[in-house]
Amino acid sequence: MFFQRLYQLFVQFRDFIIFILLVIISLSLISIGDISAISGFRAFVVGTIGWINDKVMFIPNISALRNENQTLRELNLELSNEVTANYIAQKENENLRKLMELPKKILKPIEFADVVGYQKIGNKNYLIINKGYADSLDFGMTVRTDAGLLGTIAMVSRRYSIVETIFNPDVKISAKVPAQNILGIVVWDGEHSLLLQNIPRTVKVNLWEEVVTSNFSSRFPADVPIGKIRSISVEPGTLFHRIEIEPYVMFNQVGQVAIIKELPDSAKINLIKRFFKVSE
Which residues contact 32 (CB under 8 A, 6 or more apart)? Predict the structure, then answer.
């Protein structure tokens, strides 16, 4: 440490130190008074100084290197942030392009919105989006992405809305497996999986078949994709399959959504409620 400090002082004041040495040597030579000796020594000194400067320039300056490393680290961080921002922008652009294709597929009025917040209450998961009744959104409207079903609007303010996602044990979705014409109910188990329930073990079910909403649903439009069957097992103590669904959409991986600006059929819902004597 001492030698490093000494070296730094020498590098910092080397011109001044060399100047002092030269002055001392010059005064010594003047006292000698021999012109030929002075000329020879002058040539020697010039060559020596050139050699010293050349070598000193190749010796690393620790302080300068430390500053340079800090600058390079800052530059690397800036470049890394820029790459990340570009990647995120690219993914958002791809998602928006896919969302923009939805109106051509479902032929219903749609409002696009950004997800601005997530909320978890117990084992219930909600989203906050940046559109509200000022954009003609209303309670009960279906929320989805280009990939599939996400949930419904549960509360609306002027500029924002809360989305109740399908990852909520209280949400029950009338669903079907179109390839096999199997009907069931999709629910969230409150932990890790969406389950397709009420499928008897006598019914053959195939892995990786698509599950969509059925036209028996009073809450969601028909034929909205939900996911694919990823596992089939026996439900202990019952006569039904335990069928797990791999959802097309995960609520915590969504940045943009599409809201189908169509309310559930109130006449149908009221008829069902009257028949079963169910009140809100």
Answer: 38
Residue 175 contacts residue 213 (beta carbons within 8 Å) = yes
Q: Three-class SS of residue 129? A: strand
- 125 and 168 in contact (C-beta within 8 Å)? yes
- Residue extents of the structural domains in the chain: 2-58, 173-249
Which CATH architecture does the domain made up of 173-249 adopt?
Beta Barrel (2.40)
- By the 8 A CB rule, do 192 and 167 touch? no
pLDDT of residue 178: 94
Average pLDDT over the chain reads 81
Closest residue by Cα to residue 171 from 155, 194, 148, 146? 194
Looking at residue 64, its amino acid is A
Residue 97: the pLDDT is: 72
- Summarize pLDDT for 67-82 with one digit per residue, the tens: 777 787 777 777 777 7
Q: Using one digit for the tens of pLDDT, what is the confidence trace for 239-279? A: 999 999 999 999 888 989 999 998 877 777 677 667 766 44
Angle between helices 14-32 and 2-12 (to 10 degrees): 70
CA 188, CA 179: separation in Å to the nearest integer?
23
The dihedrals phi and psi of 171, each to the nearest 5 degrees, come to: -90, 125
